[in-house]
Amino acid sequence: MRLATFFADFADNVARVGAVDGGGARVFDLAAAATRASADASAFASMLSLIDADDAGLDLARTLLEKRGGEADLWRPLAEVVLLAPLPEPRQMRDGMSFATHILQSARGARALQALKADGVEAFEAAMAAPLGDLPAVYRRIPIYYITNRQTVVGPGATVRWPRYSKVMDYELEIAAITKRTRANIPAAEASRHIFGYTIFNDFSARDRQTIEMEGRLGPAKGKSFDGSNAMGPWIVTADELGDPQTLKVDVKVNGETRSTGDTGAMLFSFAEFIADAAQDETIRAGEVFGSGTVGNCCGLEIGRFLQSGDEIVLGVDRIGVLQNTVIAQA
């Protein structure tokens, strides 16, 4: 299933949970369907409620689709609703660095930004053309990640206001896995069974601020934490429907121009390994987000092309869909 969070009626100001049809044209109101069927609708109060209901909630959703899917008034055209982030308030967010190409090319891009600031455009171009070097061994030793801001999540169609302290705007195409069970010490062999589904994640980044922060060797802060910095959507594709998340083709378009293409096949650690590592003597809760890290070539820092105010960014991922956002610089 493809599961979305949406506003259908701004008068009641209630976000609803629905199942999107195969053509991506309509959304089925699961709570309304449950109420009509005299079933318990509590699992559809929010996406977190559905996740907490685990397999029983998904089974009920499938049953409602099967038995009530022919009732036209339970469907809403997507063109007439507002899609929100599928999981507007994750319980936690971790973001990894799982693609060697991105790790190497983004490090080169950061050096190029420093060269641009110090010595100008020619120095920037020379730095971007420099050899990549070897991947530090630590990236193959353990999953590298940081905990990001779960309160800055926005959904498809949202306009992201660029923070005033930054002039270098960037996007990052990632895949995010959402957990569905609460447990510590999850073996890697079992971790896939703890994944509810997957969505597209745009980890917007203020590169000039991030470049400074990384000199402190503690990780990104305001470089990746501002209102709207974590865009997700357009919906969650359940794990059973998506299949292997390391077989996805991806692309980035800016103002309709293809900037990057890639695939998810070269992850240094799988989502299962990432979750198992994070769960060592730490309880992972249902409704947490694990970001894959940026797919190789799929951010401006790697290719030396950054965003401008007013740009439309569209991230496309096989078997999930597209996530569209716009960035606007603040006065």
From TrEMBL:
Pfam families: FAA_hydrolase. Residues 141-327 form the Fumarylacetoacetase-like C-terminal domain. InterPro entries: Fumarylacetoacetase-like_C (IPR011234), Fumarylacetoacetase_C_sf (IPR036663). One of its GO terms (molecular function) is catalytic activity. It comes from the Bacteria. This is 2-keto-4-pentenoate hydratase/2-oxohepta-3-ene-1,7-dioic acid hydratase in catechol pathway. The lineage of its organism: Bacteria, Pseudomonadati, Pseudomonadota, Alphaproteobacteria, Hyphomicrobiales.
